[in-house]
Design brief:
The protein is an alpha/beta fold. It has twelve helices and nine strands. A nine-stranded parallel β-sheet has the order 5-4-3-2-1-9-8-7-6. The protein starts with a helix and ends with a helix.
Length: 258
């Protein structure tokens, strides 16, 4: 059992719906990143920090552009990992990264450095469950929660095999395609949540396509909480951290009435 899971279960026991905003590490720029991260953490239960990568297969245009900006400024995934570690944390942090940077450094070294930087969990969207055993073991040895993603097209058998690896929360992907805001929440969201809950008592959070307070409340009415990414990143980049903090405050208020 991970420290993250202890905290998540304690929150769920009180009936609190979980809010997990995503922030691309290093935005808007290195100097203002600490303020942005602090603003995002104020209404969060956990913060998902994206590590920039040049070929982000899961990321839509908003998050991909943010990552490109960080890379253009000279900061790679490991630099952002350590940059984040130098910023005092008020909430749990999860690193979201693709597998290539992990493979390049080595699974054990990466997990050791992530834990040393204060991270409590790991999300790796492009690593199939069949190939994740070594990294999961390295994460466990470093005290990092493993957070798998479950797609809406997964068969019951595959859902079971993916969910069985979780040691934090389960990330229920609400729709096919890359990250990004949507006009409405996909009707597939409830189906993937039901499929996950049939296999685990861990918290199940809905992500991808949650863009406003109404959608957050809709998703959290069937799940234990939500992950919100592109809408947060767009606000940080276009209007500044204060706008993102206000947005997340509205989401928090909508979740608290459930």
């Amino acid at each position: 059992m991970t420290a993250m899971l202890d905290e998540l279960r304690a929150s769920r026991a009180t009936g609190r719906k979980l809010l997990v905003p995503y922030l691309m590490g290093g935005i808007p720029d290195k100097g203002s990143y600490p303020a942005a991260l602090a603003a995002i953490e104020r209404h969060a239960d956990i913060v998902e920090v994206g590590l920039p990568y040049s070929d982000p297969l899961m990321d839509g245009p908003v998050i991909a552009a943010a990552g490109e900006r960080v890379i253009a400024a000279g900061h790679g995934p490991l630099e952002v990992l350590e940059m984040t570690g130098r910023i005092d944390a008020t909430k749990l942090r999860v690193a979201m990264t693709y597998y290539n940077p992990i493979h390049h450094l080595g699974e054990v070294k990466f997990c050791t450095r992530a834990a040393a930087a204060g991270f409590s969990g790991l999300i790796v969207p492009d690593l199939p469950v069949e190939e994740s055993e070594g990294l999961r073991a390295a994460a466990a040895d470093s005290g990092l929660a493993w957070i798998p993603l479950v797609a809406p097209t997964s068969s019951p058998e595959r859902v079971a095999s993916i969910v069985a690896t979780a040691t934090g929360f389960v990330y229920a992907v609400s729709t096919l395609g890359v990250t990004g805001t949507r006009e409405s929440l996909s009707d597939r969201a409830s189906k993937v949540v039901v499929a996950c809950r049939a296999e685990t008592d861990l918290p199940v959070l809905v992500g991808i396509g949650v863009s406003n307070a109404q959608q957050a409340a809709e998703a959290a009415s069937i799940a234990d909480g939500v992950v919100v990414g592109s809408a947060v990143v767009r606000l940080v980049m276009d209007e500044g951290p204060a706008a993102a903090e206000e947005f997340l405050g509205n989401l928090r208020a909508a979740l608290d009435v459930l």
